[in-house]
Write a structure and sequence with these properties.
Chain lengths: 294, 295
Protein backbone atom coordinates (compact mmCIF):
# COMPACT_ATOMS: atom_id res chain seq x y z
CA UNK A 1 0.00 0.00 0.00
CA UNK A 2 2.63 2.50 1.09
CA UNK A 3 4.78 1.52 -1.81
CA UNK A 4 2.17 2.15 -4.47
CA UNK A 5 1.22 5.44 -2.83
CA UNK A 6 4.83 6.56 -2.99
CA UNK A 7 4.96 5.51 -6.61
CA UNK A 8 2.38 8.11 -7.68
CA UNK A 9 4.13 10.87 -9.62
CA UNK A 10 4.04 14.38 -8.15
CA UNK A 11 1.75 15.97 -10.72
CA UNK A 12 -0.92 13.32 -10.06
CA UNK A 13 -1.01 14.35 -6.40
CA UNK A 14 -1.51 17.91 -7.51
CA UNK A 15 -4.27 16.75 -9.84
CA UNK A 16 -5.83 14.93 -6.93
CA UNK A 17 -5.79 18.09 -4.87
CA UNK A 18 -7.33 20.05 -7.72
CA UNK A 19 -10.02 17.41 -8.07
CA UNK A 20 -10.74 17.52 -4.35
CA UNK A 21 -11.02 21.30 -4.49
CA UNK A 22 -13.41 21.00 -7.40
CA UNK A 23 -15.60 18.52 -5.47
CA UNK A 24 -15.58 20.86 -2.50
CA UNK A 25 -16.64 23.78 -4.66
CA UNK A 26 -19.37 21.76 -6.36
CA UNK A 27 -20.72 20.69 -2.98
CA UNK A 28 -20.67 24.28 -1.78
CA UNK A 29 -22.63 25.46 -4.83
CA UNK A 30 -25.15 22.64 -4.37
CA UNK A 31 -25.54 23.48 -0.70
CA UNK A 32 -26.16 27.14 -1.51
CA UNK A 33 -28.80 26.27 -4.11
CA UNK A 34 -30.57 23.79 -1.83
CA UNK A 35 -30.46 26.06 1.21
CA UNK A 36 -31.87 28.97 -0.77
CA UNK A 37 -34.60 26.77 -2.20
CA UNK A 38 -35.47 25.26 1.18
CA UNK A 39 -35.80 28.70 2.73
CA UNK A 40 -37.97 29.84 -0.18
CA UNK A 41 -40.25 26.83 0.40
CA UNK A 42 -40.62 27.72 4.07
CA UNK A 43 -41.12 31.46 3.58
CA UNK A 44 -44.90 31.42 2.95
CA UNK A 45 -45.44 29.60 6.24
CA UNK A 46 -42.98 31.82 8.11
CA UNK A 47 -44.76 34.92 6.82
CA UNK A 48 -48.15 33.48 7.72
CA UNK A 49 -47.10 33.09 11.34
CA UNK A 50 -45.36 36.49 11.33
CA UNK A 51 -48.45 38.19 9.91
CA UNK A 52 -50.54 36.76 12.72
CA UNK A 53 -48.61 38.93 15.18
CA UNK A 54 -48.69 42.12 13.13
CA UNK A 55 -50.83 45.20 13.60
CA UNK A 56 -52.91 46.27 10.59
CA UNK A 57 -50.44 49.12 9.93
CA UNK A 58 -47.45 46.84 9.97
CA UNK A 59 -49.16 44.52 7.52
CA UNK A 60 -48.71 47.18 4.82
CA UNK A 61 -44.96 47.56 5.27
CA UNK A 62 -42.63 46.73 2.43
CA UNK A 63 -40.47 44.72 2.60
CA UNK A 64 -42.62 42.68 4.98
CA UNK A 65 -40.76 42.23 8.27
CA UNK A 66 -40.23 38.60 9.25
CA UNK A 67 -40.15 39.53 12.92
CA UNK A 68 -42.97 41.98 13.69
CA UNK A 69 -41.73 45.25 15.23
CA UNK A 70 -44.68 45.57 17.58
CA UNK A 71 -45.94 42.02 18.08
CA UNK A 72 -49.55 41.90 19.18
CA UNK A 73 -51.91 39.16 20.26
CA UNK A 74 -55.00 41.14 19.20
CA UNK A 75 -55.50 39.02 16.07
CA UNK A 76 -55.55 35.82 18.11
CA UNK A 77 -57.86 37.29 20.74
CA UNK A 78 -60.41 38.52 18.22
CA UNK A 79 -60.35 35.27 16.22
CA UNK A 80 -60.92 33.20 19.34
CA UNK A 81 -63.80 35.41 20.44
CA UNK A 82 -65.40 35.72 16.99
CA UNK A 83 -65.29 32.12 15.87
CA UNK A 84 -65.74 28.72 17.48
CA UNK A 85 -62.18 27.93 16.43
CA UNK A 86 -61.54 25.59 19.34
CA UNK A 87 -64.74 23.65 18.59
CA UNK A 88 -63.61 23.29 14.97
CA UNK A 89 -60.21 22.02 16.07
CA UNK A 90 -61.88 19.58 18.44
CA UNK A 91 -64.17 18.30 15.66
CA UNK A 92 -61.20 17.79 13.34
CA UNK A 93 -59.18 16.09 16.03
CA UNK A 94 -61.99 13.70 16.96
CA UNK A 95 -62.74 12.96 13.32
CA UNK A 96 -59.07 12.36 12.50
CA UNK A 97 -58.43 10.15 15.54
CA UNK A 98 -61.50 7.97 14.98
CA UNK A 99 -60.73 7.68 11.27
CA UNK A 100 -57.14 6.68 12.03
CA UNK A 101 -58.30 4.06 14.51
CA UNK A 102 -60.79 2.62 12.06
CA UNK A 103 -58.37 2.59 9.12
CA UNK A 104 -55.61 0.97 11.17
CA UNK A 105 -57.98 -1.73 12.45
CA UNK A 106 -59.60 -2.56 9.14
CA UNK A 107 -56.28 -2.44 7.26
CA UNK A 108 -54.53 -4.68 9.77
CA UNK A 109 -57.29 -7.29 9.66
CA UNK A 110 -57.86 -7.26 5.91
CA UNK A 111 -54.16 -6.95 5.10
CA UNK A 112 -53.27 -9.92 7.29
CA UNK A 113 -56.08 -12.14 6.06
CA UNK A 114 -55.47 -11.28 2.40
CA UNK A 115 -51.73 -11.77 2.79
CA UNK A 116 -51.62 -15.03 4.70
CA UNK A 117 -54.71 -17.14 3.96
CA UNK A 118 -55.24 -19.01 0.75
CA UNK A 119 -58.97 -19.38 0.24
CA UNK A 120 -59.97 -18.82 -3.38
CA UNK A 121 -62.57 -16.20 -2.58
CA UNK A 122 -59.87 -14.00 -1.04
CA UNK A 123 -58.35 -13.51 -4.49
CA UNK A 124 -61.63 -12.08 -5.69
CA UNK A 125 -61.88 -9.84 -2.64
CA UNK A 126 -58.35 -8.60 -3.23
CA UNK A 127 -59.00 -7.98 -6.91
CA UNK A 128 -62.06 -5.88 -6.02
CA UNK A 129 -60.12 -3.81 -3.50
CA UNK A 130 -57.28 -3.39 -6.00
CA UNK A 131 -59.70 -2.34 -8.70
CA UNK A 132 -61.47 0.29 -6.60
CA UNK A 133 -58.32 1.67 -4.99
CA UNK A 134 -57.58 4.25 -7.64
CA UNK A 135 -61.09 5.71 -7.70
CA UNK A 136 -60.85 9.16 -6.13
CA UNK A 137 -63.13 10.00 -3.25
CA UNK A 138 -64.67 12.89 -5.17
CA UNK A 139 -66.16 10.42 -7.65
CA UNK A 140 -68.53 8.75 -5.18
CA UNK A 141 -68.78 11.49 -2.57
CA UNK A 142 -72.27 12.61 -3.52
CA UNK A 143 -74.04 9.21 -3.21
CA UNK A 144 -72.15 8.74 0.06
CA UNK A 145 -73.56 12.06 1.23
CA UNK A 146 -77.09 10.78 0.65
CA UNK A 147 -76.28 7.65 2.65
CA UNK A 148 -75.11 9.79 5.55
CA UNK A 149 -78.22 11.91 5.20
CA UNK A 150 -80.42 8.81 5.30
CA UNK A 151 -78.64 7.75 8.48
CA UNK A 152 -79.45 11.15 9.97
CA UNK A 153 -75.77 11.71 10.61
CA UNK A 154 -75.27 15.04 8.84
CA UNK A 155 -73.49 17.67 10.93
CA UNK A 156 -71.88 15.11 13.18
CA UNK A 157 -68.48 13.52 13.56
CA UNK A 158 -70.14 10.17 12.78
CA UNK A 159 -71.30 11.43 9.43
CA UNK A 160 -67.80 12.65 8.65
CA UNK A 161 -66.38 9.33 9.75
CA UNK A 162 -68.50 7.35 7.27
CA UNK A 163 -66.36 8.69 4.44
CA UNK A 164 -63.06 7.82 6.10
CA UNK A 165 -63.58 4.39 7.68
CA UNK A 166 -61.44 2.38 5.27
CA UNK A 167 -58.47 3.07 3.03
CA UNK A 168 -57.76 0.73 0.12
CA UNK A 169 -54.13 1.75 0.09
CA UNK A 170 -53.83 0.88 3.79
CA UNK A 171 -55.00 -2.66 3.08
CA UNK A 172 -52.33 -3.02 0.35
CA UNK A 173 -49.61 -1.55 2.50
CA UNK A 174 -50.28 -4.00 5.32
CA UNK A 175 -50.73 -6.93 2.94
CA UNK A 176 -47.35 -6.21 1.33
CA UNK A 177 -45.70 -6.03 4.73
CA UNK A 178 -47.40 -9.23 5.89
CA UNK A 179 -46.16 -11.10 2.83
CA UNK A 180 -42.61 -9.79 3.07
CA UNK A 181 -41.96 -9.73 6.78
CA UNK A 182 -44.05 -12.40 8.49
CA UNK A 183 -42.79 -15.94 7.88
CA UNK A 184 -45.41 -18.70 7.54
CA UNK A 185 -43.29 -20.96 9.75
CA UNK A 186 -43.69 -18.63 12.70
CA UNK A 187 -47.47 -18.72 12.44
CA UNK A 188 -47.57 -22.49 11.88
CA UNK A 189 -45.32 -23.09 14.89
CA UNK A 190 -47.66 -21.08 17.09
CA UNK A 191 -50.67 -22.97 15.73
CA UNK A 192 -49.00 -26.33 16.39
CA UNK A 193 -48.33 -25.17 19.94
CA UNK A 194 -52.08 -24.78 20.23
CA UNK A 195 -52.47 -21.02 19.76
CA UNK A 196 -55.86 -19.90 18.46
CA UNK A 197 -56.10 -17.80 15.29
CA UNK A 198 -57.05 -14.66 17.16
CA UNK A 199 -54.13 -15.15 19.58
CA UNK A 200 -51.74 -15.51 16.66
CA UNK A 201 -53.05 -12.31 15.10
CA UNK A 202 -52.97 -10.21 18.27
CA UNK A 203 -49.74 -11.47 19.85
CA UNK A 204 -47.58 -12.39 16.85
CA UNK A 205 -48.77 -10.54 13.77
CA UNK A 206 -49.69 -7.14 15.21
CA UNK A 207 -46.38 -6.57 17.04
CA UNK A 208 -44.49 -7.41 13.85
CA UNK A 209 -46.59 -4.88 11.95
CA UNK A 210 -45.92 -2.05 14.36
CA UNK A 211 -43.77 0.03 11.97
CA UNK A 212 -46.03 -0.09 8.88
CA UNK A 213 -49.11 0.41 11.05
CA UNK A 214 -47.54 3.50 12.60
CA UNK A 215 -46.71 4.87 9.15
CA UNK A 216 -50.25 4.15 7.98
CA UNK A 217 -51.67 5.76 11.11
CA UNK A 218 -49.83 9.01 10.40
CA UNK A 219 -51.02 9.00 6.78
CA UNK A 220 -54.60 8.29 7.83
CA UNK A 221 -54.55 11.02 10.46
CA UNK A 222 -53.32 13.68 8.05
CA UNK A 223 -55.73 12.52 5.36
CA UNK A 224 -58.67 13.20 7.67
CA UNK A 225 -57.14 16.30 9.27
CA UNK A 226 -56.74 17.96 5.87
CA UNK A 227 -60.01 16.69 4.34
CA UNK A 228 -61.95 19.48 2.68
CA UNK A 229 -64.65 18.65 0.13
CA UNK A 230 -66.30 15.93 2.24
CA UNK A 231 -66.59 17.93 5.51
CA UNK A 232 -67.77 20.88 3.43
CA UNK A 233 -70.84 18.99 2.22
CA UNK A 234 -71.53 16.91 5.34
CA UNK A 235 -71.47 19.83 7.78
CA UNK A 236 -73.62 22.91 7.40
CA UNK A 237 -73.95 24.23 10.94
CA UNK A 238 -71.20 26.40 12.32
CA UNK A 239 -70.54 24.20 15.35
CA UNK A 240 -70.15 21.04 13.25
CA UNK A 241 -67.47 22.38 10.89
CA UNK A 242 -64.02 20.89 10.85
CA UNK A 243 -61.17 23.36 11.11
CA UNK A 244 -60.47 23.38 7.37
CA UNK A 245 -64.07 24.15 6.49
CA UNK A 246 -64.51 26.62 9.32
CA UNK A 247 -61.42 28.53 8.27
CA UNK A 248 -62.30 28.51 4.57
CA UNK A 249 -65.84 29.77 5.18
CA UNK A 250 -64.66 32.26 7.81
CA UNK A 251 -62.62 33.98 5.11
CA UNK A 252 -65.48 34.19 2.62
CA UNK A 253 -68.42 35.02 4.87
CA UNK A 254 -67.25 38.23 6.43
CA UNK A 255 -64.94 41.10 5.79
CA UNK A 256 -61.92 39.72 7.55
CA UNK A 257 -58.55 41.37 7.71
CA UNK A 258 -55.47 39.37 6.84
CA UNK A 259 -54.07 39.63 10.35
CA UNK A 260 -56.96 37.71 11.84
CA UNK A 261 -56.98 35.19 9.00
CA UNK A 262 -53.28 34.61 9.55
CA UNK A 263 -53.81 34.20 13.28
CA UNK A 264 -56.50 31.57 12.74
CA UNK A 265 -54.37 29.80 10.14
CA UNK A 266 -51.33 29.80 12.41
CA UNK A 267 -53.32 28.15 15.19
CA UNK A 268 -54.32 25.43 12.74
CA UNK A 269 -50.75 24.94 11.56
CA UNK A 270 -49.45 24.23 15.06
CA UNK A 271 -50.87 20.69 15.38
CA UNK A 272 -49.79 19.70 11.84
CA UNK A 273 -46.24 20.96 12.22
CA UNK A 274 -45.83 19.61 15.76
CA UNK A 275 -47.05 16.17 14.73
CA UNK A 276 -44.84 16.24 11.66
CA UNK A 277 -41.75 17.08 13.68
CA UNK A 278 -42.43 14.23 16.12
CA UNK A 279 -43.56 11.66 13.55
CA UNK A 280 -41.28 12.64 10.69
CA UNK A 281 -39.83 9.16 10.25
CA UNK A 282 -43.20 7.42 10.19
CA UNK A 283 -44.49 10.06 7.86
CA UNK A 284 -41.66 9.74 5.41
CA UNK A 285 -41.94 5.97 5.58
CA UNK A 286 -45.65 6.07 4.91
CA UNK A 287 -45.36 8.46 1.99
CA UNK A 288 -42.32 6.71 0.56
CA UNK A 289 -44.11 3.37 0.57
CA UNK A 290 -46.95 4.84 -1.52
CA UNK A 291 -44.46 5.02 -4.36
CA UNK A 292 -43.39 1.44 -4.04
CA UNK A 293 -46.55 -0.21 -5.25
CA UNK A 294 -45.90 -2.94 -7.77
CA UNK B 1 -59.72 -29.38 11.26
CA UNK B 2 -57.04 -26.69 11.17
CA UNK B 3 -58.40 -25.52 7.82
CA UNK B 4 -61.92 -25.21 9.25
CA UNK B 5 -60.64 -23.20 12.18
CA UNK B 6 -58.89 -20.87 9.76
CA UNK B 7 -62.05 -20.47 7.69
CA UNK B 8 -64.06 -19.56 10.79
CA UNK B 9 -61.44 -17.00 11.83
CA UNK B 10 -61.23 -15.49 8.37
CA UNK B 11 -64.97 -15.10 8.04
CA UNK B 12 -65.41 -13.73 11.55
CA UNK B 13 -62.79 -11.00 11.29
CA UNK B 14 -62.98 -10.23 7.59
CA UNK B 15 -66.74 -9.99 7.24
CA UNK B 16 -67.23 -6.80 9.31
CA UNK B 17 -64.38 -5.10 7.45
CA UNK B 18 -65.75 -6.17 4.08
CA UNK B 19 -69.24 -5.10 5.08
CA UNK B 20 -67.92 -1.60 5.86
CA UNK B 21 -65.92 -1.59 2.63
CA UNK B 22 -68.96 -2.55 0.62
CA UNK B 23 -71.17 0.02 2.33
CA UNK B 24 -68.89 3.05 2.09
CA UNK B 25 -66.94 2.27 -1.09
CA UNK B 26 -68.54 -0.25 -3.44
CA UNK B 27 -72.15 0.84 -2.95
CA UNK B 28 -71.57 4.58 -3.52
CA UNK B 29 -69.34 3.85 -6.52
CA UNK B 30 -72.10 1.70 -8.03
CA UNK B 31 -74.65 4.34 -7.12
CA UNK B 32 -72.63 6.99 -8.98
CA UNK B 33 -72.70 4.82 -12.10
CA UNK B 34 -76.44 4.19 -11.71
CA UNK B 35 -77.37 7.82 -11.05
CA UNK B 36 -75.39 9.00 -14.05
CA UNK B 37 -77.89 7.17 -16.28
CA UNK B 38 -80.94 8.66 -14.58
CA UNK B 39 -82.61 12.03 -14.52
CA UNK B 40 -82.31 12.17 -10.77
CA UNK B 41 -83.48 15.48 -9.41
CA UNK B 42 -84.02 15.97 -5.68
CA UNK B 43 -87.05 18.13 -6.33
CA UNK B 44 -88.92 15.87 -8.72
CA UNK B 45 -90.65 12.65 -7.78
CA UNK B 46 -89.96 10.95 -11.10
CA UNK B 47 -86.42 9.76 -11.55
CA UNK B 48 -86.57 8.15 -14.98
CA UNK B 49 -83.80 6.20 -16.68
CA UNK B 50 -82.46 8.29 -19.54
CA UNK B 51 -79.46 6.34 -20.77
CA UNK B 52 -76.54 8.50 -21.82
CA UNK B 53 -78.55 11.75 -22.09
CA UNK B 54 -76.67 13.31 -19.16
CA UNK B 55 -73.37 12.72 -20.92
CA UNK B 56 -74.73 14.09 -24.17
CA UNK B 57 -75.84 17.21 -22.33
CA UNK B 58 -72.41 17.56 -20.72
CA UNK B 59 -70.73 17.90 -24.11
CA UNK B 60 -72.74 21.08 -24.73
CA UNK B 61 -72.64 22.53 -21.22
CA UNK B 62 -70.39 25.63 -21.23
CA UNK B 63 -69.92 25.61 -17.45
CA UNK B 64 -68.84 21.98 -17.44
CA UNK B 65 -66.52 22.52 -20.40
CA UNK B 66 -64.98 25.53 -18.69
CA UNK B 67 -64.45 23.42 -15.57
CA UNK B 68 -62.92 20.62 -17.61
CA UNK B 69 -60.53 22.97 -19.40
CA UNK B 70 -59.51 24.75 -16.18
CA UNK B 71 -58.96 21.50 -14.33
CA UNK B 72 -56.90 20.06 -17.17
CA UNK B 73 -54.75 23.20 -17.31
CA UNK B 74 -54.19 23.04 -13.55
CA UNK B 75 -53.37 19.32 -13.55
CA UNK B 76 -50.88 19.54 -16.42
CA UNK B 77 -49.50 22.85 -15.16
CA UNK B 78 -48.65 21.30 -11.80
CA UNK B 79 -47.12 18.33 -13.60
CA UNK B 80 -44.91 20.48 -15.82
CA UNK B 81 -43.67 22.52 -12.87
CA UNK B 82 -43.26 19.64 -10.44
CA UNK B 83 -41.55 16.81 -12.32
CA UNK B 84 -38.37 18.53 -13.64
CA UNK B 85 -37.97 20.56 -10.45
CA UNK B 86 -38.44 17.52 -8.21
CA UNK B 87 -36.03 15.45 -10.28
CA UNK B 88 -33.29 18.10 -10.09
CA UNK B 89 -33.81 18.76 -6.39
CA UNK B 90 -33.79 15.06 -5.57
CA UNK B 91 -30.58 14.61 -7.59
CA UNK B 92 -28.94 17.47 -5.70
CA UNK B 93 -30.14 16.23 -2.29
CA UNK B 94 -29.04 12.71 -3.16
CA UNK B 95 -25.62 14.09 -4.07
CA UNK B 96 -25.40 15.75 -0.64
CA UNK B 97 -27.06 12.90 1.20
CA UNK B 98 -24.13 12.52 3.59
CA UNK B 99 -24.06 16.20 4.48
CA UNK B 100 -25.56 17.31 7.77
CA UNK B 101 -27.90 19.64 5.90
CA UNK B 102 -29.65 16.82 4.00
CA UNK B 103 -32.26 16.39 6.76
CA UNK B 104 -33.00 20.12 6.68
CA UNK B 105 -33.46 20.13 2.90
CA UNK B 106 -35.80 17.16 3.00
CA UNK B 107 -37.85 18.59 5.86
CA UNK B 108 -38.11 22.09 4.42
CA UNK B 109 -39.16 20.90 0.99
CA UNK B 110 -41.53 18.29 2.37
CA UNK B 111 -43.22 20.44 5.02
CA UNK B 112 -45.65 22.21 2.63
CA UNK B 113 -47.00 18.79 1.68
CA UNK B 114 -47.94 18.14 5.31
CA UNK B 115 -49.52 21.38 6.46
CA UNK B 116 -53.28 21.71 6.14
CA UNK B 117 -54.56 22.87 2.78
CA UNK B 118 -56.55 25.86 3.89
CA UNK B 119 -53.94 27.64 6.05
CA UNK B 120 -51.36 27.01 3.32
CA UNK B 121 -53.70 28.54 0.77
CA UNK B 122 -54.24 31.51 3.11
CA UNK B 123 -50.49 32.12 3.19
CA UNK B 124 -50.37 32.25 -0.59
CA UNK B 125 -53.50 34.32 -0.78
CA UNK B 126 -51.65 37.05 1.06
CA UNK B 127 -48.65 36.72 -1.26
CA UNK B 128 -50.91 37.11 -4.31
CA UNK B 129 -53.07 39.84 -2.77
CA UNK B 130 -53.34 42.72 -5.23
CA UNK B 131 -53.01 45.55 -2.70
CA UNK B 132 -51.10 44.10 0.24
CA UNK B 133 -49.29 41.18 -1.32
CA UNK B 134 -45.50 41.01 -1.49
CA UNK B 135 -45.63 39.61 -5.01
CA UNK B 136 -46.89 42.85 -6.54
CA UNK B 137 -44.56 44.85 -4.31
CA UNK B 138 -41.66 42.78 -5.55
CA UNK B 139 -42.71 43.14 -9.18
CA UNK B 140 -42.87 46.88 -8.57
CA UNK B 141 -39.13 46.81 -7.85
CA UNK B 142 -38.57 45.49 -11.32
CA UNK B 143 -40.89 48.05 -12.80
CA UNK B 144 -43.68 45.57 -13.55
CA UNK B 145 -47.18 46.96 -13.12
CA UNK B 146 -49.21 45.35 -10.30
CA UNK B 147 -51.59 42.63 -11.37
CA UNK B 148 -54.92 41.49 -9.95
CA UNK B 149 -53.64 37.96 -9.51
CA UNK B 150 -56.72 36.43 -7.95
CA UNK B 151 -59.30 38.25 -10.04
CA UNK B 152 -58.00 37.67 -13.52
CA UNK B 153 -59.27 34.31 -14.85
CA UNK B 154 -55.95 33.33 -16.43
CA UNK B 155 -53.72 34.62 -13.64
CA UNK B 156 -55.79 32.90 -10.96
CA UNK B 157 -55.13 29.60 -12.73
CA UNK B 158 -51.43 30.41 -12.55
CA UNK B 159 -51.79 31.12 -8.83
CA UNK B 160 -53.52 27.78 -8.24
CA UNK B 161 -50.78 25.98 -10.19
CA UNK B 162 -48.10 27.68 -8.07
CA UNK B 163 -49.87 26.79 -4.82
CA UNK B 164 -50.49 23.17 -5.86
CA UNK B 165 -46.93 22.73 -7.11
CA UNK B 166 -45.58 24.11 -3.83
CA UNK B 167 -47.63 21.47 -2.02
CA UNK B 168 -46.87 18.54 -4.35
CA UNK B 169 -43.16 19.17 -4.78
CA UNK B 170 -42.10 17.64 -1.45
CA UNK B 171 -43.97 14.43 -2.17
CA UNK B 172 -42.38 14.09 -5.61
CA UNK B 173 -38.90 14.82 -4.24
CA UNK B 174 -39.37 12.18 -1.56
CA UNK B 175 -40.44 9.51 -4.03
CA UNK B 176 -37.53 10.42 -6.33
CA UNK B 177 -35.12 10.20 -3.40
CA UNK B 178 -36.30 6.65 -2.72
CA UNK B 179 -35.72 5.98 -6.42
CA UNK B 180 -32.20 7.43 -6.35
CA UNK B 181 -31.36 5.29 -3.32
CA UNK B 182 -32.40 2.15 -5.17
CA UNK B 183 -30.38 2.86 -8.32
CA UNK B 184 -27.67 0.26 -9.03
CA UNK B 185 -24.44 1.70 -7.72
CA UNK B 186 -22.24 -0.52 -9.90
CA UNK B 187 -23.63 1.00 -13.08
CA UNK B 188 -22.54 4.49 -12.02
CA UNK B 189 -19.14 3.19 -11.02
CA UNK B 190 -18.73 1.62 -14.46
CA UNK B 191 -19.86 4.81 -16.19
CA UNK B 192 -17.39 6.85 -14.13
CA UNK B 193 -14.52 4.51 -15.06
CA UNK B 194 -15.51 4.89 -18.70
CA UNK B 195 -15.04 8.62 -18.27
CA UNK B 196 -18.66 9.72 -18.03
CA UNK B 197 -19.16 13.07 -16.30
CA UNK B 198 -21.72 13.52 -13.51
CA UNK B 199 -23.96 15.36 -15.93
CA UNK B 200 -23.74 12.54 -18.47
CA UNK B 201 -24.60 9.84 -15.96
CA UNK B 202 -27.55 11.95 -14.81
CA UNK B 203 -28.90 12.27 -18.36
CA UNK B 204 -28.07 8.82 -19.67
CA UNK B 205 -28.38 6.68 -16.53
CA UNK B 206 -30.53 8.33 -13.85
CA UNK B 207 -33.30 9.71 -16.03
CA UNK B 208 -33.93 6.47 -17.97
CA UNK B 209 -33.59 4.32 -14.85
CA UNK B 210 -36.01 6.53 -12.94
CA UNK B 211 -38.65 6.36 -15.68
CA UNK B 212 -41.02 4.14 -13.66
CA UNK B 213 -40.82 6.60 -10.76
CA UNK B 214 -41.42 9.52 -13.11
CA UNK B 215 -44.48 7.75 -14.49
CA UNK B 216 -45.81 7.00 -11.03
CA UNK B 217 -45.31 10.55 -9.77
CA UNK B 218 -46.86 11.93 -12.98
CA UNK B 219 -50.00 9.86 -12.61
CA UNK B 220 -50.38 10.69 -8.92
CA UNK B 221 -49.86 14.39 -9.63
CA UNK B 222 -52.34 14.40 -12.52
CA UNK B 223 -54.98 12.48 -10.55
CA UNK B 224 -54.74 14.83 -7.60
CA UNK B 225 -54.73 17.76 -10.03
CA UNK B 226 -58.02 16.61 -11.52
CA UNK B 227 -59.53 16.48 -8.02
CA UNK B 228 -58.37 19.99 -7.15
CA UNK B 229 -60.90 21.93 -5.17
CA UNK B 230 -59.86 23.33 -1.77
CA UNK B 231 -57.04 25.40 -3.26
CA UNK B 232 -59.31 26.94 -5.86
CA UNK B 233 -61.99 27.52 -3.24
CA UNK B 234 -59.70 29.41 -0.89
CA UNK B 235 -57.60 31.33 -3.41
CA UNK B 236 -60.26 32.42 -5.80
CA UNK B 237 -63.47 32.74 -3.85
CA UNK B 238 -64.49 36.05 -2.32
CA UNK B 239 -61.38 37.89 -1.42
CA UNK B 240 -61.82 39.85 1.80
CA UNK B 241 -65.56 40.08 1.51
CA UNK B 242 -65.35 41.50 -1.98
CA UNK B 243 -67.12 39.27 -4.47
CA UNK B 244 -64.29 37.47 -6.17
CA UNK B 245 -64.29 35.31 -9.22
CA UNK B 246 -64.62 31.60 -8.62
CA UNK B 247 -62.34 29.38 -10.62
CA UNK B 248 -64.59 26.71 -12.03
CA UNK B 249 -63.05 23.27 -11.49
CA UNK B 250 -64.69 19.86 -11.93
CA UNK B 251 -65.41 19.22 -8.25
CA UNK B 252 -66.92 22.69 -7.87
CA UNK B 253 -69.17 22.14 -10.87
CA UNK B 254 -70.21 18.75 -9.48
CA UNK B 255 -71.09 20.20 -6.10
CA UNK B 256 -73.00 23.09 -7.67
CA UNK B 257 -75.03 20.79 -9.86
CA UNK B 258 -75.99 18.52 -6.98
CA UNK B 259 -76.48 21.00 -4.15
CA UNK B 260 -77.49 24.21 -5.87
CA UNK B 261 -79.31 22.91 -8.96
CA UNK B 262 -80.39 19.66 -7.26
CA UNK B 263 -79.43 17.70 -10.37
CA UNK B 264 -77.78 14.74 -8.71
CA UNK B 265 -77.92 12.45 -11.75
CA UNK B 266 -76.25 15.09 -13.87
CA UNK B 267 -73.55 15.63 -11.25
CA UNK B 268 -73.03 11.86 -11.11
CA UNK B 269 -72.35 11.82 -14.83
CA UNK B 270 -69.64 14.44 -14.23
CA UNK B 271 -68.22 12.16 -11.55
CA UNK B 272 -68.13 9.37 -14.11
CA UNK B 273 -66.18 11.62 -16.49
CA UNK B 274 -63.70 12.25 -13.68
CA UNK B 275 -63.52 8.50 -13.08
CA UNK B 276 -62.83 7.82 -16.75
CA UNK B 277 -60.03 10.41 -16.81
CA UNK B 278 -58.40 8.80 -13.78
CA UNK B 279 -58.80 5.30 -15.22
CA UNK B 280 -57.26 6.31 -18.53
CA UNK B 281 -54.29 7.91 -16.77
CA UNK B 282 -53.72 4.79 -14.70
CA UNK B 283 -54.04 2.50 -17.71
CA UNK B 284 -51.48 4.61 -19.57
CA UNK B 285 -49.13 4.25 -16.63
CA UNK B 286 -49.58 0.48 -16.49
CA UNK B 287 -49.15 -0.05 -20.22
CA UNK B 288 -46.02 2.11 -20.34
CA UNK B 289 -44.56 0.20 -17.41
CA UNK B 290 -45.30 -3.15 -19.03
CA UNK B 291 -43.71 -2.00 -22.28
CA UNK B 292 -40.60 -1.11 -20.35
CA UNK B 293 -40.56 -4.48 -18.61
CA UNK B 294 -40.66 -6.27 -21.97
CA UNK B 295 -37.89 -4.22 -23.54
Amino acid sequence: MTLSANAIPFDDVAGDRRRRLKTLLTNLVIDIILTAFSIAMLLPLVFLVANAFKTPQEMLLWPPPIVPHHPTLDNFKSVLSDTPLLTWIWNSLLFACLSTLSIMTTSAIAGYVLGKFSFKILNIVFAIILGTAIIPFEVYMIPLYFQVKALGALNSVWGLLVGYLVMSFGIFLIRQNVIHSIPDELLEAARIDGAGELWVFVYIVLPLLRAPLAALGVLAFFQAWTAFAWPLIVTSTKTAYTIEVGLALFQTGFTVDLGRLSAASSIVLIPSITLFVFLRRQFVQGVASTGLKE
Amino acid sequence: MLQRKKLIFVSLVLLPTLAIYAAVRLYPIGETLRLSLHQWNILSKNKPFIGFDNFRELTGDPLFLEALVNTTIIAFGVLIVTIPLALCLAALIHHRTKSRLAGFYETAIFLPHVVSLVPAAMAWKWIFDARLGPLNAMLDWFGVAPKAWLFDPVLSLVCIIVLCSWQTLGYAVLIYLVGFKNLPHALYEAARLDGASARQSFWFLSIPLLKPITLYVSVVTLVSGFNVYAQAFVLASDSQGAPGRQVRVLVLDMLENSFRNYRVGYAASEAVVLLVIVLVLTLIQFSLLREKGRA
